Amino acid sequence: MTHAPENRTAPDAVLAGYRKSIDNIDAALVHMLAERFRITQAVGEYKAKVELPPADPNREKNQIERLRKLAEEADLDPEFSEKFLRFIIEEVIRHHERARGG
């Protein structure tokens, strides 16, 4: 017969350690995304200045292929990584369109 774990008054140190690592990774992801969007904002402003289109389908295709390969090498679901990158690309294009005045 399986028993439910007892309610503990003291926090589980192992779980707390995992959660601290997750929190640190989440903070790093937020900072990395912020830096990425600072750079892509500059790209959008440059594209608007030199009258380049906001989207670059060939670059996007290559980036998705590259990220899927990296995901596979890292044992991360390539479908997830592609969805994640597509979400970022869509947001970047929206920023570039805004920079262009569209």
Automatic annotation (TrEMBL):
GO biological process, one term: chorismate metabolic process
GO molecular function, one term: chorismate mutase activity
Entry annotated with the keyword Mitochondrion: no
Keyword check for Isomerase: yes
Membrane spanning stretches: none
Record keywords, A-Z: Isomerase
Residue span, Chorismate mutase domain: 9-100
EC number: 5.4.99.5
Enzymatic class: isomerase
PANTHER family reported for this sequence: CHORISMATE MUTASE
Name recorded for this polypeptide: chorismate mutase
